[in-house]
Amino acid sequence: MDLSLIALLGGCLMTAALLYYVIFVRREQPISSWGKSGIVTLMFVLVPVLVIALWFQDGAVNRLEQMGFEPYPGFVSSSGIATGLGEKPFWVFTVEGGAEPVLEFYKLAENRKGWMLVSESKSLLLFEREGKSVAVSAVADSVAFMMGQRELNGRGDR
Questions:
Q1: Measured between alpha carbons, how far is 20 from 26 in angstroms, rounded to an integer?
Q2: Which residues of the chain have pLDDT under 50?
Q3: What span, in angstroms and rounded, lies between the C-alpha atoms of 99 and 14?
Q4: What CATH class is the domain 61-149?
Q5: Following CA atoms 73, 74, 76, 79 in sequence, which dihedral angle do they give, to the nearest 10 degrees?
Q6: What's the distance, CA 108 to chain centroid?
Q7: Phi (first) and psi of residue 84, to 5 degrees
């Protein structure tokens, strides 16, 4: 999970708890009605969004594994909201040790069950299986997996 989101969630919860104590427990009115609406927004909009994003990040590696890709041992965390959901899932992970070892790891057939390597370059691998394609892009300390449908022309060719 992304440590910056965890820290942001912790800060939001502490701020909301402090404001709840000041306004509702001590019955002081240090802020206007706009401030109270801020508490509501913080607790009922921002906090749930952060919790959902962290929950999706927590399951990102499992969803990648369900697609047939072994998790790279150097994955540090899932990043942002790209956590492998939807029809065309997209994952972004922070990695240790740079991009090149990640690409070398996924070139090995045992780390990508059933996916055929069809193209490779310095920072990108392209795999296909059952009419779907996955592009694995690795740059610096991040790796992205992008799944899509294989595009076919009218004759059934690519």
A1: 9
A2: 152-156
A3: 37
A4: alpha beta
A5: -100
A6: 24
A7: 80, 40
What residue segments make up the domains of the chain, in order of their start? Answer: 3-58, 61-149
**Terminal Cα distance for the chain, rounded:** 37
E strand or H helix that includes residue 125: strand 124-129
Q: How far apart are CA 62 and CA 96, in angstroms?
A: 19
Residue pair 150/131 in contact (Cβ under 8 Å)? The answer is yes
What pLDDT, in 10s, does the model give residues 65-85?
998 999 999 998 888 776 667
What global pTM score does this model have? Answer: 0.72
The number of CA neighbours under 13 Å toward the Cβ of 11 is 6
| Residue 72: predicted pLDDT | 94
List phi, psi (to 5°) of 75. -60, 125
Identity of residue 45? V
Give Cα 65 distance to the centre of its chain. 14
